[in-house]
Amino acid sequence: MNKFYGTGIAMVTPFQADGKIDYEGLEKLINHLIAGGVEYLVSLGTTGESATLSSEERKQVFAFTSKIVKGRVALIAGIGGNNTAEVVETIKQFDITGYDAILSASPNYTKPTQEGIYQHYKAIAEATPLPVILYNVPSRTGSNVNADTVTRLANDFKNIIGIKEASGNFDQINQIMRDKPEGFLMISGDDPVTLPMMALGAVGVISVVGNALPRQTSDLVRLCLAGDFKAAQKPHSALIDFTRLMFVEGSPAGVKTALKHLNICGDTVRLALVQVSSGIAQRIIQETDKLS
């Protein structure tokens, strides 16, 4: 599972001004990230605004991304939802060519019990030959995948190999790290806490910030993987203001503003998301210039 150690990027989906998918921008983004030294990419995670894409658009983005990546780095497909049967059918029909794993967020809005969450991921694990990475993000889903459920899934299904953990609950993170089976991957799903999570044994991050600043994010993560947390404090601190700005008016609007300034792709987002305000955009540009 070493291919998922280090920096993964939850890629944005670039759009043209009229809202159509910008494939030229997506190719530039992919090459920008690989040149920035990241270890793997996530196509159509929630940062990719996957909820606003049609099923046909998702198929096209998955295929295009695989074609451009060409095996240069590991590649993960984001496939999730709160209709388990639909998620399972999507996974069964998914062309796995070029993909190394599936990342699936826990069901949103419906607030399932822990048993419901377990059964949801059981169905996903049994539907694919690919490794599966759980994604726990209670601030967006409305429910938490607790530590006992994580370790139960990790023990019961060999192809459930890790979790992107974005609860911010360090008591829960401690319990998972203590009780998880050997080899199960803890991955930070929250840019601001990558360093402290890696100090507890996380193997890296699936980053939003890294869309714009892949080299800086990768440098931080590599220092943490090497156990040099004192040296890692400098890049960690340097990224604090930039990271805060990425989320202050919604993600991925913030990082798309930085990407536009870097001439990678435009800053268009699909409703109900909107672009950041002019004041925040100016601050993002200033921080981008400072760090890039």
TrEMBL record:
One of its GO terms (molecular function) is 4-hydroxy-tetrahydrodipicolinate synthase activity. SUPFAM superfamilies: Aldolase. It catalyses: L-aspartate 4-semialdehyde + pyruvate = (2S,4S)-4-hydroxy-2,3,4,5-tetrahydrodipicolinate + H2O + H(+). GO terms for biological process: diaminopimelate biosynthetic process; lysine biosynthetic process via diaminopimelate. The active site is at residues 135, 164. Its main location: cytoplasm. Pathway: Amino-acid biosynthesis; L-lysine biosynthesis via DAP pathway; (S)-tetrahydrodipicolinate from L-aspartate: step 3/4. InterPro entries: Aldolase_TIM, DapA, DapA-like, Schiff_base-form_aldolases_AS. Gene3D superfamilies: Aldolase class I. Keywords: Amino-acid biosynthesis, Cytoplasm, Diaminopimelate biosynthesis, Lyase, Lysine biosynthesis, Schiff base. The record marks 46, 109 as: Part of a proton relay during catalysis. The keyword Cytoplasm applies. It is an enzyme of class 4 (lyase). Pyruvate binds at residues 47, 206. It is found in: Cytoplasm. Its EC number is 4.3.3.7. CDD domains: DHDPS (cd00950). Belongs to the DapA family. Catalyzes the condensation of (S)-aspartate-beta-semialdehyde [(S)-ASA] and pyruvate to 4-hydroxy-tetrahydrodipicolinate (HTPA). NCBIfam families: dapA. Homotetramer; dimer of dimers. This is 4-hydroxy-tetrahydrodipicolinate synthase. It comes from Mucilaginibacter frigoritolerans. The gene is dapA.
